Amino acid sequence: MSDPFSHLSELELVRLAAHNERAFEVLVKRHAPAVYRLAASTVGSGAADDIVQEVFMALHRSLKTFRGEAQLSTWLHRVTLNACAKLLSARQNLALEAAPELAAPHNPAQAGENADLRERLAAALQTLPREQREAVTLREISGLDYAEIAELTGAELGTVKSRINRGRAALREWLQRAGVKP
């Protein structure tokens, strides 16, 4: 038996989810993976679950007032980035030198290779200025195009391209210093 909510548009689901738990669950299932990827790439996998929970609690609180002027995914990206920025701001009192020592360069045979690389990338992303981190994350992790990123962040298209270019260069340099080979 198919799910009666699976065929509904995002806006229809949002309107129903304000008073229907099943419709809200469908929204969460559709969007939670993307929210988690964005949060994990910004604040690390350890804090990503908390960010996802915070984002969907915010969605639930806002269901009755969501007007649909922007796509739900755009709204969720913005809320996710705001929650990540709040968490990173709280962490800011920790010096970069206090960050855990990175492991030796990975060996493809090691079981934790992918997790190690993800943690290094998350650490590298945290060293970027907020605007660059957002732009790079939205492009590389969320797969948004430059115009979507410009709309979401309120920045000019050229500014978005510049932030991504500078962010990628800084990440490449940081990762090379950390022993990650391209």
Q: Which descriptors would you attach to this protein?
A:
mainly alpha; globular; 182 residues; Rna Polymerase Sigma Factor, Chain: A
What is the fold's blueprint, element by element?
Layout: H1 10-17, H2 21-43, H3 45-62, H4 72-91, H5 113-126, H6 130-140, H7 146-153, H8 157-177
Helix pairs in contact: 1-2, 2-3, 2-4, 2-5, 3-4, 5-8, 6-8, 7-8
CATH class category of the largest domain: Mainly Alpha
Radius of gyration: 18 Å
Low-confidence stretches: 93-111
Task: Please state the overall shape, judged from the principal axes of the Cα atoms.
Answer: globular
Mean pLDDT: 80
Q: What characterizes the major β-sheet?
A: none
Order of helices and strands: HHHHHHHH
Strand segment tally: 0
Percent of residues in helices: 55-70%
Number of helices: 8
Examine the coordinates and then state which fold CATH places here, giving the name of the CATH topology of the largest domain: Rna Polymerase Sigma Factor, Chain: A
**Distance separating the two termini:** 47 Å
CATH architecture of the largest domain: Orthogonal Bundle
- Strand pairing plus helix content: what structural class? mainly alpha
Tally the structural domains: 2
Strand content: under 5%
CATH superfamily of the largest domain: RNA polymerase sigma factor, region 2, helix turn helix motif
Question: How would you characterize this protein structure?
Answer:
The protein is mainly alpha-helical. The protein folds into 2 domains: 7-92, RNA polymerase sigma factor, region 2, helix turn helix motif (Rna Polymerase Sigma Factor, Chain: A); 112-182, Arc Repressor Mutant, subunit A (Orthogonal Bundle). It has 8 helices and no strands. The protein has helices at residues 10-17, 21-43, 45-62, 72-91, 113-126, 130-140, 146-153, 157-177. The longest helix has 23 residues, at 21-43. The model is unreliable at 93-111 (pLDDT under 50).
